[in-house]
Amino acid sequence: MIRLASVTKRYATGSRPALSDVTLEIGVGEFVFLVGPSGSGKSTLLRLLLREERATAGLVEVAGRDVARIPDRRVPQLRRTVGCVFQDFRLLPDRTVAGNVAFALDVVGRPRHVVRTVVPEVLELVGLAGKEKRFPDELSGGEQQRVAIARAFVGRPRVLLADEPTGNLDPATGSEIMELLEDVNQAGTTVLMATHNAGLVDAMRRRVLELDAGTLVRDERRGGYDA
Ligand code: ADP
Ligand code: ADP
Q1: For residue 11, how far is its CA from the centre of ligand 1 (angstroms)?
Q2: Which atom of ligand 2 is closest in space to residue 100's alpha carbon?
Q3: C-alpha pair distances (Å), 52 with each of 68, 72, 161, 227
Q4: Which residue ranges make up each domain of the chain?
Q5: Matching SMART domains, A to Z (predicted)?
Q6: Residue 218 dihedral angles phi and psi, to the nearest 5°
Q7: What pLDDT does residue 108 have?
Q8: Could you tell me which residues are beta bridge partners of residue 19?
Q9: By alpha-carbon position, which residue is closest to atom 17 of ligand 1?
Q10: How far apart are the C-alpha atoms of 162 and 152, rounded to whole Å?
Q11: ipTM of the complex
Q12: pLDDT digit of tens for each residue in the chain (227 aa)?
């Protein structure tokens, strides 16, 4: 589902590459953690998969497509294949919960009657039934992250990227969000989650990829946060 072959990413301003010669493959339906200290290249890797950045060298493939060769006008299609959630939720503050989720469908031109049925279904799925008309600032952090996951998942992406999704949440709420990401994974979506949350990684015992200063230093089948 995801393949990087000898990928190097050098930013115009950086002295050393943000990623150096990274090679990895993630299969359909896997749940993978991406760990490593701050500045090790985790976000850069995720941005390459969304074509928010381009690799300086090497090949980046998502769902069998070389993302470097996707024409700019087709990038929105890639972003439909790859949903993403972030530490800071990134909800639209002037739209309701339902509006935030509906927006993701509106922008890809789904008809209103589809939006009307699908939005309540996905909100039910993430445990937010009854909160459709709330605004983001009326929700707890955990609820806001549920909205973000609903929005990312509503188009049934094949891949979900999560950049430190529990970073702003207390441990109990973080665990709930993890359960939700596991549900998303069970539904067949490949999940790649960048995190510093050692407790969650250790509890889950999933595949762990570790970056250090842009180099892939570990790929363990049932890994913990530390080697
Ligand atoms: P992480 O997500 O693991 O904290 P990042 O991918 O954000 O790591 O950063 C990897 C390296 O690339 C760091 O040295 C960081 O300073 C650098 N970097 C990240 N984004 C940019 C950018 N837009 N321009 C220049 N350097 C960047
Ligand atoms: P506004 O755009 O005025 O902030 P909303 O955010 O409530 O209004 O709604 C924006 C979008 O969300 C519209 O496309 C609407 O069809 C959709 N929507 C609103 N409420 C629901 C709901 N309960 N179920 C499904 N879709 C909804």
Answers
A1: 8
A2: 6
A3: 11, 11, 13, 30
A4: 1-5+13-80+156-222, 91-155
A5: AAA
A6: -155, 140
A7: 85
A8: 9
A9: 18
A10: 10
A11: 0.76
A12: 999 999 999 999 878 999 999 999 999 999 999 999 999 999 999 999 999 999 999 999 999 999 999 999 999 889 889 999 999 999 999 999 999 999 999 988 899 999 999 999 999 999 999 999 999 999 999 999 999 999 999 999 999 999 999 999 999 999 999 999 999 999 999 999 999 999 999 999 999 999 999 999 999 999 999 98
Tell me how long the chain is.
227
> Does residue 122's CB lie within 6 angstroms of at least one atom of ligand 2?
no
Site residues for ligand 1, CB cut-off 6 Å: 11, 13-14, 18, 36, 38-44
Q: Identify the CA nearest to 90 among candidates 179, 191, 161.
A: 161
CA 98 – ligand 2 centroid, Å:
5
Which atom of ligand 2 lies nearest, measured to the CA of 96?
Answer: 6
CA 117 to chain centre: 24
Q: How far, in Å, is the centroid of ligand 1 from the Cα of 41?
A: 6
* 1-5+13-80+156-222 belongs to CATH 3.40.50.2300: no
Which atom, in ligand 2's list, is nearest to the CA of 103?
A: 11
Helix, strand, coil percentages for the chain (3-state, nearest 5) = 35, 25, 40
State the ligand closest to the CA atom of 214: 1
Do 186 and 198 touch, CB atoms closer than 8 A?
no
CA distance 20 to 56: 10
CB contact at 8 A, 80 and 47: no
Confidence (pTM)? 0.91
